Amino acid sequence: MRFSSAPGLIGRWFVLGCVLQLSLAGCGDDGSGGSPSSGGGGAGGEPSTGGAPLGGAASGGAGGVATGGAASGGASSGGMGGEGGAGDPCAACPDSCCDGACVDFASDGEHCGSCTHSCEGGGCQEASCQPVLIAGGKLIGIDEDEVFISGAMVSRFPKAGGASTPIGSLPGGPSSSDQYYLAAADIYRTFGGNNGGVDRLEIATGTTTTIATAENNPTYPVEVGTNVYWGTTGGIIRRANKSGGAATNFISNQAFPTSSRPTGRGSTLVTPCSRR
Questions:
Q1: Per residue in 108-152, pLDDT tens?
Q2: Residue 108 domain boundaries
């Protein structure tokens, strides 16, 4: 009987130990942040008659509350917004916008009346360029960039104004009856009235060449090819080589010749008969 009852008793204690072990296992870490407080499990009661253990309720210790540090992140500040693209500069003046800017055609000296119409140093009034004094003297002619003036010296002046460049002098100086012709490389002059003459001033060197003398009221010289032509009293058009030499009659018995003389180079002599 002793031996037969011993296994039952051992089994009961074995079951009790397992209960205690499971109760203790329930007291493990519960909070991830803090250390758990461990409470001992309650002692089991005496076994009942039926062999079932009367175990006291195992009360596990309350787990520690995990305290996590507050995550502190720096405040994110957005970058500065980009500047908007420039607007159309001509939006406010679609009919008077030149080179990307609004202009006043009525008064702008560089855009007088229209874009890029420059008054070349003169004023602009009511969309019209006003005269500007470039130099005193007698006008010889105008090319693309310069104005040629006869005074004490024959000089060239920038159209936009500025310092002059002397070319040379003509014999006797300028006179009110003098007539000039501006060619590509030379300046021609008729002068002297009833006992006049024709001469040539080379622009590059300032050298003067006499082409004809003792001419009767010579007027309106013109260079054509290698010759120089001019008119005289009596309806005669005469000519000579531009390097000098004897002058000859080219046309006779014509009405006194006149000339259509543009201000620039390349004017042509015009007579009632269209011959040169």
A1: 999 999 999 998 788 999 999 998 887 788 999 999 999 999 998
A2: 90-132
What is the H or E stretch that residue 18 is in?
A: helix 2-25
- Model confidence over 31-74: pLDDT tens digits? 444 444 444 444 444 444 444 444 444 444 444 444 444 444 44
The CATH number covering residue 188 comes to 2.120.10.30
The CA distances from residue 224 to 57, 180, 227, 252, 267, in Å, are 137, 14, 5, 18, 10
> In terms of domains, do 245 and 262 share one?
yes
| Among 132, 165, 191, residue at a domain's last position | 132
Chosen domain end from 132, 165, 200: 132
d(CA 252, CA 235): 6
Structural domains in the chain (count) = 2
